Amino acid sequence: MVVVLDTIESEKLRLEADYIEELPFLDTHVRSNLNNGNSSSARRSRRLSRKTQWVLLTAVLLLTIGTINLITVKKRRRVPGGGERLRFSIDSANQGRRLGFLDTILDSTTSEELFVSIPSTKSAISASRKYASRPHIAGSEEDLDDARSILELFQTQFGIPVPTQEPVFSAGSPQSQKAIKDIPFLLTPQAWIDTYYPVMNMPLDRSVEVLGEDNSPVWAADLTEDGDPGDPVAARFRDFIPTFHGLSMDGEVEGQLVYANYGRKEDYDTLEAAGADLTGKIVIVRYGGIFRGLKVKGAQERGAVGVLIYSDLRDDGAVTAENGYETYPNGPARNPDSVQRGSVQFISMYPGDPTTPGYPAYENVTRSEALNKPSIPSLPISWNNAKRLLEEIGDASENRLLSGKSSARKIRLVNHNDEKVTPIWNTMAVIPGHIKDEVVIVGNHRDAWVLGGADPISGTVSLHEIIRGFGALLRSGWRPMRTILFASWDAEEYGLVGSTEWGEDFEDWIRENVVAYLNTDVSSAGSRYSVSASPSLSNIIVKTAKDLAHPTEEGKSLWDARTDSGPFGGAFSPDFEVQHEVGQKIMTSSRTGVHPLGSGSDYTVFLQRIGIASTDQGFEGTPNDAPYHYHSIYDSQKWQEVYADPGFHRHVAIAKSLGLLALRMSDAVVVPLNTTQYALELDDYLDVVEHAASDAETEFTVLRKSITNLQQASYALDAEKKVAEERLLELLKGMHDTYMRERSGRRHKNFWFGVRNVLRGLLGISPIYPPRRIESADVDSILYDWFNLASPTLEKEEGRHLPRHTHVIPPPDSEREAMAQQFPVREVIEALKRVRRINKMLTSFERGFISEGGIKDREWYRHLGVAPGKWLGYGATTFPALTEALTIENNSTLAAYEAKRLQELIDQLTTSLHI
């Protein structure tokens, strides 16, 4: 009985306090009198004349109004930009707005406009100058400093209290596991750092020499970039990170030099057809066409003992010294002493730590033999060094032909490096949503080969602005419908290591919870907007890009920037023209303008191993842009500000695009994944296969029929999700209208209750209170409960989790039950369950292409719809197992097997879409 009375008294005091705090016209003295209405002084009977009472009341009201006006003016003067921020708050209050759950569902305009207003060029430039001011290669102290800086950014923007002990966890530890697996039970944002332990290398000594008849060197390459003082930051760090290949083989080799163009499979095949024998040779190839590690792999498989890779000026389009342009930093043309560092991992075999394929690189993990890195040494070199070496083969008219001709003299290549287990740091943050088992991930990598002005700092800057935008939303009272996880990945440059290890660590959790993965790597390296994605994401991507303004031209949208070109003119070399036309054809082959993902960035583990719909976007160079000094010291802040993105408008455009996409993915009632668009594009994928199999015996009629059946099932799902969404929104709007009517009716009564209680307080009489009104927070709380009651995951696991996490579905109380009676509880929960079932079908669709058997010879890749080409690395191959059975294996029996395997997956997908 005592407990019951205490509870009643406590609730009464709470209601009194809540009510007093809501009265807008009480000054501190009056508020104190009201709060102490039960004290001995307040209980004293005061008898004043009616005239005196009204005089006092009028004076108090006038004084309070004047005080409020004075405070408002002072706030506007004191806070930079405060007038605008205050106006937003007042306008929102006047319009009855609160960025709550129900408001966001019914109208996302307010939250979207607020988010888009935050990313700014001033903030972006400041962040870029901070992060691109010195080298920060993966595993370095500078890299760890940046990881902590991003952690601090998360804490500041998301209102996360700084813990007494720094939240840096060793991967695999209870703290690291708990940080992810407790996400469904979080109520407030959290941030932390996970530490993984992959094998990586750093250079010791390197050399490239031409040997004379007595085997002594007659010429030696200068392997250090020149560091022109015209770019002072680049000059300062000219040799801070030596020019080398990540995960390259340690060794010393000698051999004659052979030119092999881009080092593609077709280039090596051409050399073999011409009778060239690469055994014992050192191959020199130019960057471009395919991932650099596959150039080394191709040479290694044909008996070569070493590889040199250089940047060829023929691939720079119009902007060359030959066309009259000054070289960087004096002009836009490529600096001929620049060198492209980079990993030579066999990325199309498997990414991540070479010694832990398929499982995470914990500190004391048992490691296996590294099978995805070269067995022959390699080095990157500049154009100036390459030009001198090519002279050993012949004159300029013949030394870059696929003739198979060898140099008369031998070349010595030395590459010694220190390979060891090295810690790396992924910085993570989470904003918990109302729906706990649907998560949107936004990611970008943080490490760079040197300064990384474009790669990855342009992307990191865009992420920085996205974080600021979501911080502003949180401060406005907004909370996402779905949970949003942010990731600043490490060691991407060595082979997508940080994201891959995390994905392998939490594969089951990702499969069950993640809706989509949204990535940016290089957000600004040129003038043309480019986006790749799973076909199911293409429609929402296109809509979002069309809703945003072009970064530099009025009257156009961001989507229009897909056809932009750089400001420089001039002629192209003939072979560049051919390569450019091939690239353009690939870029425009998609029905929507969004092309499929291959590999080369952190979306790889999510899409191609686990089956999560993914995207990557940014601005890339064109033949008329200043050549991008990829992975060079000249990928710098100055190059970025002068040539890539003067004013940083493109950085901000990607921040708005990717952030708005994340916001729409998280706050849409029905997850905006379009399975029909995906199913239609499968027809295009099969067209490519049939073209490749024109002379083969394989028949694809059954597979084509399965694709048609999938399209029909997806059409039916489209109809169902439209009806389900409309029904839920109708019910939620009814709830909103009920709340607004109740609130409007109370507002008039509450004012007069307030006036009476001011007077009662002055007279020492106990105040009186109206019944507690339903607040927007109460509606949000009810909906929060209902969304989780409708969750298939919570229904399935409530016996295991809910007793331990009682806050997930708070116990009902009489007040909440009374409020809930005003709303159509059963109808809303049923409508929610209907939507949740549909969302589960949509988010599981991509996973329907995952085969546990994987792709032949590279089983780490499991997606039978798309994968990086076996001999491409960067580029996508659709229906990869089937396509490569025909184009690489030339095996019609294997092709028939792969067609059958693909058809069975598609049939299962069709079944999964049935309502």
From TrEMBL:
<dbReference type="InterPro" id="IPR036757">
    <property type="entry name" value="TFR-like_dimer_dom_sf"/>
</dbReference>
<feature type="domain" description="Transferrin receptor-like dimerisation">
    <location>
        <begin position="828"/>
        <end position="913"/>
    </location>
</feature>
<dbReference type="GO" id="GO:0004180">
    <property type="term" value="F:carboxypeptidase activity"/>
</dbReference>
<dbReference type="InterPro" id="IPR046450">
    <property type="entry name" value="PA_dom_sf"/>
</dbReference>
<keyword id="KW-0472">Membrane</keyword>
<comment type="similarity">
    <text>Belongs to the peptidase M28 family. M28B subfamily.</text>
</comment>
<feature type="domain" description="Peptidase M28">
    <location>
        <begin position="426"/>
        <end position="636"/>
    </location>
</feature>
<dbReference type="InterPro" id="IPR039373">
    <property type="entry name" value="Peptidase_M28B"/>
</dbReference>
<keyword id="KW-1133">Transmembrane helix</keyword>
<dbReference type="Pfam" id="PF02225">
    <property type="entry name" value="PA"/>
</dbReference>
<protein>
    <submittedName>
        <fullName>Zn-dependent exopeptidase</fullName>
    </submittedName>
</protein>
<dbReference type="InterPro" id="IPR003137">
    <property type="entry name" value="PA_domain"/>
</dbReference>
<dbReference type="InterPro" id="IPR007484">
    <property type="entry name" value="Peptidase_M28"/>
</dbReference>
<feature type="domain" description="PA">
    <location>
        <begin position="253"/>
        <end position="330"/>
    </location>
</feature>
<dbReference type="InterPro" id="IPR007365">
    <property type="entry name" value="TFR-like_dimer_dom"/>
</dbReference>
<keyword id="KW-0812">Transmembrane</keyword>
<dbReference type="Pfam" id="PF04389">
    <property type="entry name" value="Peptidase_M28"/>
</dbReference>
<feature type="transmembrane region" description="Helical">
    <location>
        <begin position="54"/>
        <end position="71"/>
    </location>
</feature>
<dbReference type="Pfam" id="PF04253">
    <property type="entry name" value="TFR_dimer"/>
</dbReference>
